[in-house]
Amino acid sequence: MAGRSPWYLAYRRLRRNRVALGFSGLFVAIVVFVGAAPLWANHVAGTGPNATHTTEKVEVDGESREVVNREGRPIGPLWLGAGGKFFLGADGRLGRDEMVRLMYGGRISLFVGFLSTLIAIVLATTLGLLAGYYRGWADTVISRSLDVIWAFPVTLLAIALGLALATGGLQVGPLDLSSNSLWIPILIIAFVYTPYMARPIRGEVLALREKEFVEAAVSQGAGPLRVMFGELLPNLGSTLIVFFTLGVAQNMLLESMLSFLGVGVQAPNTSWGTMIGEGFELISTAPLLTVIPGTMILLTVLAINIVGDGLRDALDPKSKVRIEARTGISESQGTAV
Amino acid sequence: MARFAVRRLAGAAVVMFAISLIVFAIFNVIPSSDPAVSLAGKNATPALIAGITEEWGLDESLPRQYVTMMEKIFGGDLISYEGREDVDERILEGVPATFSLCIGAAAIWMFFGILFGYLSAVRSGGLLDRALTIVAVTGISIPVFWLAAIFLNYLTYKTQLFPSGTYVPFTESPFEWASHLFLPWVTLAITYIGIYSRVLRSNMLDAMKEDYVRTARAKGLSERHVMTRHVLRNSLAPIVTLFGLDFGVLLGGAIVVEGVFNLDGIGLYTFESLINQDLPPVMAVVIFGAFFIVLFNALVDIAYAYLDPRVKLGESAQ
Amino acid sequence: MSASLLSVRDLRVGFATEGGLVQAVDGASFELAAGEVLAIVGESGSGKSVTAGTIMGLTRGANTRIDGSVALDGRELLDADEEELRRIRGARIAMIFQDPMTSFNPVYRIGAQVVEAIRAHRPQVGREEARGRAVELLGVVGIPDPERRVDRYPHEFSGGMRQRAMIAMALALEPEILIADEPTTALDVTIQAQILELLREINRERGLATILITHDLGVVAEIADRVLVMHEGRIVERGSLDDVFYAPRDDYTRKLLGAVVRLDRAGPLRPARSSAPLLEVTDLVKHFPVRKGLLFDREVDRVRAVDGVSFSVAPGETLGLVGESGSGKSTLARAVLQLLAPTSGSVRFEGREIAGFSRRQMQPLRAEMQLIFQDPYASLNPRRRIGQIVGEPLRLHDRASGAELRSQVGELLERVGLAPEHYHRFPHEFSGGQRQRIGIARALALRPKLIVADEPVSALDVSIRAQILALLSELQEEFGLTYVFVAHDIGVVRQVSDRIAVMHEGKIVEQGPADQVCERPADPYTQALLAAVPVPDPRESRARRSSSAS
């Protein structure tokens, strides 16, 4: 007869949160959308995200129109007028298919957002566990190092790194990355985000460490690894999940800003941020080139934030105590046996 | 108290030194290409590159390079090869605009953030709370630069509701100053209103469960009195700390907002330098910006310690 | 019957929670006469605190259902609007709470918080005048130097002083009723005695009707005129103090009285032991450095938590270690087990010196000495199943695995009174008492020789305490265990210990056979400690008070 684990209780609470469920559906839809990029590119639009069509023409309702006209103005959204080609129009003087770019760009935006946050969480957890468990000398070294990076304004640091590495590429030991490698923005974002998460994780480890069940493990002869991974880490689980989710949202916004400024994702890769950067130049003549990628970012980040909030409410045991908020008189003893 | 202040400032000095080392590492050490080439910018000629190598001491030892770099930046000797101008001078010129932008936006977001957070907490669970939460979450999810572009296009270009063009100094015309800054202020403030209202709401909800709130009610204080003088008062402290941190992110936001709205401040200068991949201005802005934030945070911490009796007396009690 | 000041009829209070409707109070009726002290006794979940809070209207909320009647001087309170209730709170009915540290707002001065109470009801009173009143009140409750203390912050007061300040604040507007919710539970026993004395004095001199909520029958015997016993939301017994204590009519009351640990009852006699000591501690010292400095932390002072302690424990015996908070007993327990590295001194286990052993050196010895913890909620990892928790020590020391492990764990669970089928359950699915049993099973798993129990029953209800103590006793017999029993409650300690050591400020001030220490204490501190323990026997209690008064 299995007991009801705290995870299961959280899952039940989450299930009742219809708003969070709705937005997670939206998120799934977006993932499906960008996942379909190769399908769309190959079977509908017949072109790739970087293929230019400056001097070409396209058939629309029997009429032949220029993709980019003589003044340099790109064609607007054709929707299904040309069988799906240039569904959202062309993206400026280079005449690339905006819809195809949107889908491929989305893949990159999501990929960079997720991977950078994942790396940051793993690093932050390791550092937080080591610093919080061992304290003393190890803690001082780790904390001071993180403090310095953390004191550096996040965006300025990311911008500085982005600029330096975008012009120079990165060669550290066995690591050789050219200046347009996707790993550069991923590592930069992971690097600036790690201290931001390591601090609260360390704080929680310090608090958990004082709990008697940790002392119990030590008194039974459990070694540091056992305590860190068997006792501390499982109790960090909910915090990590919430941090990860909200972190992806934050980092997608950071990546898009860096890419907008030209120091994030580099050509030939595209992200929604770079698309906004390119579209901005034509904002008065072709505003959709700016509006659409930005809306995609907004919808995706909004969905992730709402789901993240829902997860936090579901995982946080305080949600039960919330009922006591106005009374201050404890009533939860109803379960005493 | 004085002891705390000295420690904090000393700590800040150490951090600033470490930051200068990091900036040095970022620009001179980490990239695999020749720093002289990167510094020269787009119009690099072999002669220019050689000249830079000598001027910056790039063929000398790393510590020497570091010292040279710091001398150039802090000595007012820094030149952008791209734009052929003195970097530090241009940064100083941009201060009024950036200052006006940041302070104005901060005032707006603090006011509305606290107001919305307070209302959300006091009427938690109700319709107002839900509406404000939606507003807040949306605000947090909008890319600032994109919102700026949207505002610019639809509220300035297309509809002429707000003036376009550059920064107008306050001394010239307060009204023009404000109307040119209005959209930039709102753009910057929206994200933070969202963050602050949610943080305050969360802190207040936590504070409401505290024992001293129960005591306050039991004493017969009015609900309003309890909410403001006990709950709000004890929830504001973390907001102050948060503000210190966020000012750093604000600088990043200022770069894109000034860039999009074409406000002649430090942000715009940085924006252009980034687009042109011009290193010297970015180096200077990054160092000055970071230093400013570290100092600002140290002062905030000292002020906070002054206000919180537990910290103030921590050293004399016992 | 004379008109009662407060009249409660058929009170029902229910809360809507995640798990359904919880009926905290299920039909309570009683009266409070002017000037009397009414004690409401019960264990956790009895509904006593909720009843008190509902009188003040503090339990009102969206998720609360309140029915019945609460009338103050004839005026119905349950349907009064917020403004009317607000005027009553503090002015006609005042309430003090259990934890004075968290009950004051840490960022305002004590004086300011008292003034706040005064001016909320009498806005015409000027600041200076209100402050003067606050100083006066602090003096009345026995706080020395009130002129200066009034401007201090809560954290600058000691626990006892803070509670006095709370009482002062409650008296500010001269209320007719004082509700005290577990006012001394968080205080040391010597301070508790002082606060109870203060409450008695206030009741006598001002004729202030008092409702005292408590779980401690000793406290009730010291101060109450009439008693109500609550159990699961209902009042199961009511009557005068002597009636309830000497002629209880309800089974639950009898059970409660039976479970109460009395200091003057000796524990079961056990044959004296005279073999080589299992544990020998000599001159054990544990100091914590206090670091301060301008840029670099230098040690400026030391906290002398354990300051030269010596004792020994023979195999199979129980040594009781008694001390109030800050006495160093918990630190001592951990220093002995090498969970904290001793600063100096010797600890010999089975003749072997173990003081200063590294983690690796201690590893094999860990199986011989185990710890039982105080807090049943924090001592079990909430994310693991109890079967895993109990089996962990066996796994760590490679004693068993797989099916063998499960069967051993099952046996252990059964031995402590739990069902082996509950292997898969999580800690939050058990009550406090059951969790403590799980902790005991865990400590027992490796068949240790020595078990150090750190306040194992302090966080449990009175009726559960007796069960756990009985369990510990049985296990000692069956497995030949040696106990070091650490607690602040000397009554509990006496019941289980063969020998007792009394700790005060890091030193052992007295040790010897339990009976001798409790009946013929030699040290003044021990004497004061024993004198302060409230006796759950009204006649005894009165006798003691009149003899100390004369």
Got a strand count of chain B? 2
Which fold name is given in CATH as the topology of the domain at 4-258 in chain C? Rossmann fold
| Individual helix count of chain B | 13
Q: How much is the average pLDDT of chain C? A: 89
Number of β-strand runs of chain C: 20
Runs of chain B in which pLDDT lies below 50 for 5 or more consecutive residues are 314-318
Mean pLDDT of chain B: 83
Helix content of chain C: 25-40%
Strand-pairing-aware structural class of chain B: mainly alpha
Q: Please describe the biggest sheet of chain C, giving its number of strands, its sense, and whether it closes into a barrel.
A: 6 strands, mixed
Rounded to the nearest angstrom, the distance between the terminal CA atoms of chain C is: 35 Å
Strand order of the largest sheet of chain C: 6-7-8-3-9-10
Q: Any idea of the CATH class of the domain at 4-258 in chain C?
A: Alpha Beta
What proportion of the residues of chain C form beta strands (DSSP E)? 25-35%
Order of helices and strands of chain B: HHHHEEHHHHHHHHH
Second CATH tier, the architecture of the domain at 4-258 in chain C: 3-Layer(aba) Sandwich
The CATH H-level superfamily of the domain at 4-258 in chain C is P-loop containing nucleotide triphosphate hydrolases
| Global outline of chain C | globular
CATH superfamily of the largest domain in chain B: MetI-like
- Class based on secondary structure composition and strand pairing of chain C: alpha/beta
